[in-house]
Structures are given as C-alpha cells and as structure tokens.
Amino acid sequence: MKHVRISSRLVALAVVTLVGAGACTFDPQADGGGGGGPVAAGAAERVTGASGAPGPDQRARPSTAPPKPKVKPTRGTPAPTRPTVKPTRPATRPTTSPSAAGCPQGEHQRAVEAYLARLGGFGRVTVDGRQSAADCAAIKKFQKRYDIRPAHGRAGPTTHDVAKRLATTDTARCRAGSGTTFCIDLTRQTTWVMRNGRVLVKPTVTRTGMPGYRTPAGTFTINYRNVKEWSDPYEVWLPYWQHFTRGMGFHQTTTYLHEKSIGSHGCVNLLPGDAVRFWELGKVGSKVVLVGRRPGT
Question: Which of 103, 136, 183, 267 is catalytic?
C-alpha cells in the first residue's frame, strides 16, 4: 500500500513539472506559420517592437504594474471617503471666423487694401490693416484678374507689387492723340489702351524685355498682325501677335508673367485675356507709345 502511495506522489509531481514547463508565450509564427516553438514570455514583444517607446501617433501602453489591493474597512472604522473633484470648465479656444481661416492675412494687408480701394472695381475693402470677409473676397478677385498664384486672398509680396504698380500708373504720360493707342509704362511694367485721348482699357500688367533685350521707349505703329505667329529664333508660338518694331510686338505670355527674374526678348507679354482684348482693339496702323525704362535693363 505504501508503495502505491509513493508512486502516486511521483506521478503527480511529474505532471506539475510538465505543466509548468509549458507556461510560456509561443512564437506567433508557430500557428500555421512553420518553424515555431516556445519562446520566453516577453520575446514576442521584442520581435514586434511592441515593447519600444510609443511613436508620435501611437497611444502609450497601460502600465503593467500589479493592481493595488483593495483595503476593506474594519468594523468600527469609517470607510475612507473619496475626495470630491470639482469639475473645471474646459479652456475656451479662441474662435476663428471662416473668412480669416480660409483667407490668411498677409504682411502687406493695409497697403494692398489702400491700393485696391484706389483702383476700385474689386469690391468693398476697409483700409485698416485687418483681414475681413469683404477684404478677402476683394483680394481674391484681384489675384484672379491678374493671374497671381495662388489666389488665396493673402496680401503677399506679389499681390502688393502688382497692386502698387497698377495704382501708381499715370495714364497721362502716354501722349495718345486721336484714334486707338496702346500705351506701355516700361518702368512700372503696365500697359493700357486709349482712344481719342481717353482711357479705354484700364492699366493691366505686362512684362517686357529682360537685360540684354531691352524694349525701347518711343512711338511706333502696328505694321503686322497674326493670330498665331511662329518665332523662328526661339521656336515657340506667339498667340495674338501684333508687331510694332524690330521683331518686337504684343503677344500672349508663354510663361508665368509674374516671374520677374526672366523676361521677354523685347516683346510686350500679356495675360491671355488681355492679349485677346488687345487683339480685338488693334489693327495695322494702330499707334504704340512706350515710356520709361524697365528697371535693370
């Protein structure tokens, strides 16, 4: 009988030992992935990187510290009272109007407002140096008209430069006389159209000859026109071509007009809409008057 009891104890001890040996974490690849086998607890975390520090978009793992035992109050001892936490109001975030959020204020806000108010035709603006919904709409309209990119309503350097040039153009400098006359202010890089001494088309932007290819000042006459002229030396099409002197003439720009580091080879570059308008108004014999000089040429 003693022998049977000793054998039973030995068998039970062997079973406990085997069960304890299996208390570990298995490699995830062992589940149908092949080449598995038991690994020590925590090894899977090291392989996957889960035990590393959380990334910027990763929530931190909850603490693995064992929970603190709950203390039951004994008889005669009052239960510990939980401290009352007074709810605090969440901090109020400053409200931003949709116009301000979608139309940021630029470093030339007040100056652009003043120039747009002087030019007129772009909507109501308040000259106070603060962006508003009305200012935003007016600046966007101005940027779209003169192809300033992006047209997001911000009074940045390009918008300021274009607005200043247009607002300070003196149309009286062009001695037009009778008939239709195309006028170019080379200094401000603006152009407009006059008829019988009065402004027919308000000043718009242009870009003339770059250094080494200066567009000359003077009075000339359109003597050749072609709706689409091929440039032999530069191998490019010149839409709405109106020639007035020495291979120079009006035509639609083939590059971004407001890239001031480059220029034409003497021609008067126009925005697409302006090129069409000038073409409709011009004819062989129309007068062209250029005054001033492009800076740097």
Answer: 267
The parent domain of residue 148 ranges over 98-166
Burial class (CB in 10 A: 0-12, 13-18, 19+), 83: exposed
In a shared domain, residues 200 and 285: yes
Query: How many folded domains does the chain comprise?
Result: 2
Q: pTM to 2 decimals?
A: 0.67
Per-residue pLDDT tens over the stretch 4-41: 444 444 333 333 333 333 333 233 333 333 333 333 33
Residue 82: inside a domain? no
Active site includes 267?
yes
> ω into residue 62 within 30 of 0, thus cis?
no
- Measured distance CA(92)–CA(97) in Å, rounded: 15
Q: Find residue 195's DSSP bridge partners.
A: 180, 198
For residues 235 and 266, membership in a common domain is answered with yes
**Residue 220 to residue 229: CA distance in whole angstroms:** 20
**CA–CA separation, 163 and 86 (whole Å):** 57
Q: 157 with 197, same domain?
A: no
Residue 17 has what pLDDT? 36
Residue 136 known to be catalytic: no
Each residue's pLDDT tens digit, 158-171:
999 999 999 999 99
Calpha distance 194→23 (Å, rounded): 95
- Pick the catalytic residue: 108, 243, 251, 258? 251
Please state, as a whole number, how many other Cβ atoms lie within 10 Å of the Cβ of residue 96: 9
